[in-house]
Amino acid sequence: MDTLQDIVRNLFLPLAVVLYRLDGSKMVWVVVGVLLLLVLIGFIAYLKYIHFTFYLDQEKQEFVIQKGVITKNKITIQLDKIQQVNINQSLIQKLVGVYSVDIDTAGSNKKEVSIRAVDNALALHLKQQLLSNEKTMLSTTITEEEAVKPFLNIRLSTLFKVGITSNYGRSIALILGFIGSLYGSFQEVTQTIEVDEEQVTGIVNQGINYFSFSFFLLLILVLVLLINLVRTLVKYYGYQMTFQKGAIAIQHGLFAKKNTLLKPLKVQLTIVRQNFFQRKLRLFDVHLKQAAATNEVEEEGKKSSEIEIPGCQPDEKEIILRQLGLSNEPVLKTFLPNYRYLIKAILLGIILPVIITLLVALYIYSPLHAYLPWLGLYVAFVMIIVYFRFKNYRLLVNNDLIMIKKNAWDVQFQLLEAYKIQGITTQQYFWHQSADLVHLTFHTAAGDVGFHFANYSELKPWINYWLYLAERSQQNWM
Asked: Domain 53-154+238-243 adopts which CATH fold?
């Protein structure tokens, strides 16, 4: 199946062009060519199958994969470097009755290796062996997995609540992207069939008049809620977390089943998120970030290896944090941002956009005058966001844990264990020296975490303490 997908993906466009220009009388040759191609695919797939082997070297504590038909490849993975093992089952794999095992380490920005088309018993055994500390040999005799009661079992009603209270921004972006692509396609069609654009525009404007602006907003809201709900139910259906042999087992998915086993010690950064509606329903979203390759961390828009736990109750959230070994000690010190944080947000979010809009409306694009009354609404909206961002922005610390609280709507706590810090950067502009302010950045294997406009004199002893903990730590958390 993988061989077929690769060939179809690479040859789809050339074949489509050939079929489009081909004379109907030569269709028999197309059929013969397709049959020969299927035979070739089957032969290549068979060669890949017989040359793909894997085994566990118990003496060296390594997992070894050998593959390749012409070019032989040997992949060796140290067991202590494996941070996550995923057992996935797509819709096609579900029909066939097989699974894929994906092994993830901190040294790559993609899955280190993927073993396709194994049965459920072997997939579960591989998962346990690769993340287990027990030195047992890999064998073909598979015992049934010990039944362990999940400490987290997200119900369908909870997923429904999560679906209607989260991920608004992602759904709105999806809708806008769809509308944009639809508009682009509409423009291409009108140009192709040479339709009078003024006539089409008149029809569209006449149609818009039948719908009020409030109805349009209501339609967008319904679409956002529907997209969120469907996505949440399909992706997280049957979500369970179980603690097994020092690791956390996670499984979920309606059509594409996903089964993940991770070591709590490998989690680099924990994010607890909650918006206004979730706070009323007493729900939390928890995100677990693991180590990622350097180029993946630095590339904009990329995420490190991340696991999302939606719709946790307060007691379930505490169980998860406890299983991860996060300290529940009280906060010893809270650092607040300087008022300059507020000034910068107002300058960049309100004053500068308003000035640019006025200049464009007055000297460049006069039709923009009709939209100037909306500036007042924009200023009020951004002021509310800036106020709550400033109100929520905090750095809280105790002996073992660093917690950064941020955001206006989706308020989140970034929880970082001090001994997992890889480095700390302090940045102080010359105009901040007199005010004793500093921008602080914590460098971790899962990415950078920062806190800006903090008091440097108050933070300096803590910075030295965190660096001391990171230097003297002997735990193998990578």
From this structure: PH-domain like (2.30.29)
